[in-house]
Amino acid sequence: MTMSLSRQPGAEDIARAIWLGAARQTFVAREREACCVCGKYRWLTQAHHLVPLTMQYDAGLAVPIQDYAWLCPTHHVAIHLLIANVVAAYERRITPSALQMLGESEPSEIAALFKLVDAFTALYYAAAPGAA
User: Fold this and answer.
1) Cα separation, 89 vs 97, whole angstroms
2) Per-domain boundaries in the chain
3) How far apart are CA 109 and CA 37, in angstroms?
4) Contacts of 53 (CB under 8 A, 6+ apart)
5) What is residue 1's predicted lDDT score, i.e. its pLDDT?
6) Using 50, 70 and 90 to split pLDDT, how confident is the model at 106?
7) Cα 22–chain centre separation
8) H or E, element range at 71
């Protein structure tokens, strides 16, 4: 007998997928730019929503916030890790140790990442119903 650990999507999973799909379809990016953190890789940058779409849905926003910044793949991953740390720290009311995660980043890159986190924090906690 084979057991499957996967589960069937429920109504909430379907609603989330629909909301995220609609948010992505309505997103219109301007011309691609270099990474706003390191200033490199214009050809490779990705549009990063200042408040990630999944967090917007989880916070109950009806209309997505489409503010974004261009990030290279490395800094895109880094900002998502920083955001996760900021949210976790806010919920636990402690200071995040996010600098350890950044490893050997240049101080100017760290400052730029934290500016993005500040923008995220302002948008997320201002727009999310009951988030504060």
Assistant:
1) 9
2) 12-127
3) 5
4) 20, 23, 24, 64
5) 46
6) low
7) 17
8) strand 68-71
